[in-house]
Amino acid sequence: MFTENPTTPEEDQSANATGSVGLVAPKRHRFIEPLSLACGRILQDYTLVYETYGVLNAQKSNAVLICHALSGHHHAAGRHSPDDKRPGWWDHYIGPGKPIDTNTFFVVAPNNLGGCHGSTGPVSINPDTGKPWGPDFPALRVRDWVHSQARLADLLGIEQWAVVIGGSLGGMQAMRWSLEYPERLRHCVVIASAMKLSAQNIAFNETARQAITSDPDFCEGRYLERKKLPRRGLAVARMIGHITYLSDDGLGRRFGRELRTGSFQQGTEEVEFQIQSYLRHQGDTFSSSFDPNTYILMTRALDFFDLAREYGDDPVAAFANARCRFLLVAFTSDWRFAPQRSREIADALMHANIPVSYAEIESAMGHDAFLLPSERYETLFLAYMQRVAEEMRGCE
Amino acid sequence: MRIDLDVIQEWITHGSCVLDLGCGDGALLEQLGKNRGVTGYGLEIDPGQITRCVERGVNVVEQNLDAGLGNFSDGSFDTVVMTQALQTLRHPHLVVEEMLRVGRDCIITFPNFGQWRARWHLAFSGRMPVSDLLPYEWYDTPNIHFCTFRDFEVLCRERSWTILHRQVVCESMPGGIFKEYLPNLFGETAIYHLTR
Hints:
The complex is a heterodimer. Chain A is α/β, with parallel strands linked by helices. Helix content of chain A is 34%, strand content 15%. Chain A is built from 11 helices and 12 strands. Chain A is globular and about 75 Å long. The longest helix of chain B has 11 residues, at 92-102. Chain B contains 8 helices and 7 strands, in the order H-E-H-E-H-E-E-H-E-H-H-E-H-H-E. In chain B, strand 4 (77-83), helix 4 (92-102) and strand 5 form a beta-alpha-beta unit. Chain B is an alpha/beta fold. The interface between A and B is medium-sized, with 22 and 20 residues.
């Protein structure tokens, strides 16, 4: 759940401060062992697309899993070609000398099942019909992603992740990892996330889905078969989401009430604010790169996620199963996943006697802050990861 | 290691679970972990100190003590510690009550404002004392509730807190010799071990 490749004025300065992973190419693997899903259906086979950065050490103890958020995918760092305009979505934090230091760690970044960037999802062909899955693609839960990622770990020979890291929806996956496979990770980093969505969160997601499904080109989800695309609906969905990922203060600082066209002079009817054109640009860009059914599927997985539901709604009982150490980070102006949601996680972990550290980073950038340069965030994240690296060396 | 932290270690049971309020750079929790097999968490609000805790591998949670300890249930820790932070709180007595609710016992250390050097400074220069231990001017100090050894004893009596141990420490001369006889005058740092 974030702006893909958000840009800020600070971006260029910090991009040069540390190294890039350079040119990268996605890998893909077709898993032929059937995967039982939480919804009761079975995927007979499926493909996962992923990228890796850094080198897996001989002990296979330095692997880091990056779980992506709503609109993210496998391209987390570096560039696909020298003339790529923008690097992967988390390039500020993955690379040589960065918090997730690729000189130390072997980083694995998959595109989730149900995604629209190469992993099996609604845009893939349903082998039973020979047509795109579309709306018939099985509903997915966060745990399904975790199980499919565990198979990817098996494939790569990784028995235990040094760290599983995720922001937002990615943080939910990281937490689910700690409960589903407690022995398979040593650290869990959860950034700007929550144990479950609030009614307000679900309301925003529903509004976004309604925007998509009420587009005349949606065709009940079978738009690919009909050679159509509900672009406008998806663009509106993205605009709604985008507003919620930023803060009032952040938007005000960046756009204020500046006009792009027209003037406030009396007698002038048409004006366009900068924020309008910015939002439209975000919506348009997104709707040409993302699949509407995937958006619906992923927001439903978000809505459905409830870490403690099957533990008697007791997050302490849930986390009592975890065996790893946790780092939690929240951002002060994030109202979509407010710091209070992260404090609830910290409280539950402390009550369960699980090692945890929690920091609340001062930021005006709202939910998107987790992807943007921030001195305190970087320093803290780096300190945590260096500690993980020290532990690793201690075990060698 | 600060001298009050040395004393505290002696009062904490091996393998116990400790909450350290205003844990600073995490030095105490790190030592308690290494020397006494203690587990626990530190609460801190200073960003730089939080990072230092993380560097040390000490569990630290960003939390403002003035907002209370309402997120912790009764008796969830063996010992709740607060070193050199009492004087920075808005409502120190309420925080101590909370410490005794959340922990079985609690340990508190604070600078003794009744120490002769503070008295001397105020009496003869007519200005608020500024020293190594209290290196702030009156207008920018985080310390808003200074008290003396004797003041704290009065509070303990009024609130019916049981004093398990008490000690004053002093790193400077001549306090080291006389602090046993005149703790309020010669003790630099007061250390209290309380229970309900």
